Amino acid sequence: MVSGPSLDEAAYVRGGATQTAVKILVVGHFAVGKTTFIGAISEIEPLSTEETMTRAAESVDDLKGVQGKTTTTVAMDFGRLTISDRVVLYLFGTPGQQRFVQMWEDMARGALGALVLVDPERLADSFAVIDLIEQYGLDYAIAVNRFDGSTSRDESALREALDLLDDTPIVTCDARDERSSAEALITLVRHLQDRAH
Question: Which SUPFAM superfamilies match (predicted)?
């Protein structure tokens, strides 16, 4: 288990410092919208390690349900979002393929929490991701990324399907939309604050 810092303001803001830097992971299975999410919300030009998928990747990555995908993250995505005068979120997007799982331990170190993006049409693909986040001891919120034409799911059905605790927040978002993505992150930050008290 990777232990992380506390959201308690005193742990970050001392001696006249004016901002709290908070490391947040944006995680999810392959092709769920992590790169799009960070690109939509980052106030700086996001760092993206998207590369064109090769024929070799087609034999490794399951493209079922994501026809037309031509790129994939090969290291990480990074962005920044200032949510108040005192709090700045540093967003680290993890690659979703199983072969990159070893990278997650380093990325989880020092993270305060995680926003788990899920595709409502591919919920089973989220199980391994949620297991990892729980293994690293990170608090998290679920953001259901509503793709064009995807079916709306009842929150209680989602909670049961993903085997979530009652206090795990679930929010619906559109990873392409800045406001919707910001609301998902705010939901996570409020959850982290509640857990800290």
Answer: P-loop containing nucleoside triphosphate hydrolases
pTM of model > 0.85? no
CB–CB of 128/99 below 8 Å?
Answer: no
List the structure tokens of 155: 């929150």
Domain ranges of the chain: 20-46+74-196
Kind of pairing between the strands at 87-93 and 71-82: antiparallel
Hey, is 56 helix, strand or coil?
helix
pLDDT at 94: 86
Within 13 A of 161's CA, how many CA atoms are on the CB side? 18
pLDDT at 1 over 60: no
| pLDDT of 31 | 85
The Cα–Cα gap between 49 and 170 comes to 28
Q: What is the CATH number of domain 20-46+74-196?
A: 3.40.50.300
Query: At residue 181, what is the residue type?
Result: S
Angle between helices 178-196 and 34-41 (to 10 degrees): 100
Look at 178 and 9; give whichever has higher pLDDT: 178
DSSP label at residue 78:
E
